[in-house]
Write a structure and sequence with these properties.
Length: about 90
């Protein structure tokens, strides 16, 4: 398990935002883990890890929690990212 956590933390460190004290707790309530994101996108966790290194635009913006190496995403950021990429979606 520690190996998996180490691998998760190695990818994409430089481009992820950091949670500051000024952010409200309501913004961080809905947080997705790597497995959750992989399931939602229909990709494997390993593919997402690779994309974080090779093609960061292929995955939603990552959430960086200060003091950890965990890969996490805010559900709101993932929803917004998906909405920008869905073609033919009608907005009634």
């Amino acid at each position: 398990m520690w190996r998996q956590r180490a691998r998760e933390g190695a990818a994409g460190r430089t481009c992820a935002p950091t949670i500051g004290v000024e952010q409200s707790m309501s913004e961080t309530k809905s947080v997705l883990a790597l497995r959750d994101l992989a399931s939602l996108l229909g990709r494997s966790p390993e593919t997402i890890r690779k994309d974080l290194r090779r093609n960061p635009a292929a995955v939603p913006p990552r959430l960086r929690i200060e003091g950890t190496r965990l890969l996490r995403w805010r559900a709101a950021d993932v929803d917004a990212w998906l909405a920008q990429r869905v073609e033919g979606l009608s907005h009634d």
